[in-house]
Design a protein that fits this description.
106 residues, 0% helix, mainly beta, MATH domain-containing protein, 7 strands, 34% strand
């Protein structure tokens, strides 16, 4: 599930948080790997270009484990993870742990 690049008509809504979903995949050894299935689409202030980032969440309890240097503005809140950047809108990442999901292809 990828964020949608705002069009000219959607500028009024473009500053609202965008929700993303992470799925938890059962790995060998009985552990869970929480892996993002989305690409974060971020925009600069002029909204004339965008870049895609991929995050990986990985540990037993489906809680975040990632490169904090890569996203130094990432903070954990009771409602999820919020990525803050001075030149882009904020994105909220929601984590969903589900049983019985097939392992992701490598």
């Amino acid at each position: 599930i990828a964020g949608v690049r705002p069009s000219e008509e959607e500028d009024d809504d473009s500053d609202k948080p965008v929700d993303f979903t992470l799925t938890c995949i059962n790995q060998l050894g009985g552990k869970w790997k929480c892996e993002t299935v989305i690409e974060l689409v971020t925009f600069n202030t002029k909204r004339d270009r965008y870049e895609e980032k991929r995050l990986t969440f990985d540990n037993d309890n489906c809680v975040h484990a990632l490169d904090w240097w890569y996203w130094p503005g990432l903070v954990n809140t009771k409602n999820g993870y919020i990525i803050k950047n001075k030149v882009v809108v904020e994105y909220t990442v929601k984590i969903i742990c589900s049983e019985g999901i097939e392992p992701a292809p490598i």
